[in-house]
Structures are given as structure tokens and as C-alpha cells.
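Sample pair:
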Amino acid sequence: MRAHIIGIAGPSSSGKTELARQLAARLPGTAIVSLDSYYRGMEEIPLEDRKKVNFDHPDALDWELLHEHLAAIAAGRAFEEPVYSFADYARTAETRPIEPSRYLIVEGLFVLYWPELRATLDTKVYVQTDPGVCFNRRLRRDVAERGRTPESVIEQYEKTVRPSAEWFVNPTQKYADLTVSGEEPLDRSTSAVIAALNRATAAAGGR
């Protein structure tokens, strides 16, 4: 059985990951793949230089590898998702096995950015959230989970995160099959995506 691949895109801290988790909880056996895992490895570059890289630009992502992995899962083959360390700004030596299943969710800023990647997605979702809400969520997350200082988060947000959303992320909303709000109750947005999946299944003759 071919995996139905669900792509979830949207600005930083819009609620993509939480939506993915809720969907996975309602679709037993579903794996979540994060675009963040595919940041290009820069282990040969000194840490201080890595910190200066614009990680909010599509070029920072090894989307070609993700494209290969999604093609593999669509063909019924497992793949190894990279494990990325945000503390070290580098890939680790570990990987995470992703096995074929009925559904696979891939979530991240630029999931709808590259035409080749979009072509592998069966259902495309965009999470729309007020920029102020996104900023406050990111500030809390990066300080609590990624070892950042508030000052560094604010600087990065103004220098690269906000411009990236305006230039590269927001324009991809037009490619989505449906847009959900990242501010409404998760049950509502999750149910909207489930309904879209059910319609897709019905249109495909129940396959």
C-alpha cells in the first residue's frame, strides 16, 4: 500500500508540529518527519561560524535528501531520517528509522517551497498564525528547548526569521490544499485535515 504523504507548512512557531502530533495520534502508526532534521551538515565549519549561517533560508536545507526519502517511502521502502542538534548547529551521527505506513507527515517551514518536493505530497496543509503569536511562541521555545538567550532569539527573529517568512514561507500558502489556523483549538484544525484526507480517500475509490 502506497503511503499517503501529508505536508504541513507555515511560519516558524505557527503550530505545525503540534498539528502533526495531533494528526499522528488520530492516525495510528503514522510517523512524523521534520524538515528541521535536514539542515545541511556543516561539521567541518567552526561552531562560531556555524552560528552566523542563515538557517531561515531554503538553501540551508538538504531538501534533495528529503525528496529522495519521500520517494522511497512512496515506493514502500524505509529510510533513515537524520538527527540534527540545534545546540551544536550540526547533524549528529544518529539517524531515526522511518518505516512504511498508511500515512506519513512531513512538517517544516519550506515544505511547500520546492516544486519537486510539493509533487511528492498527497495532501498539502498550511498553518496560518498571527506573526506576533509566532514570535512569542518562538521566544519561549528557543530559550527553553534550544539553549538560546532571549537577546539572540530577538536578533535572529528580526534579522532572518521574519524576512524569511515574508519572502519564502507566506507565499507558499497558495499551494496548499487547505489552510488551518494555528490559533484555534487543535481539535478543530486536526478535524479539518482528517476530513480532507477522507475526501481524498473517497475520491481515490477508497484506496
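The two ends are 8 Å apart (CA to CA).
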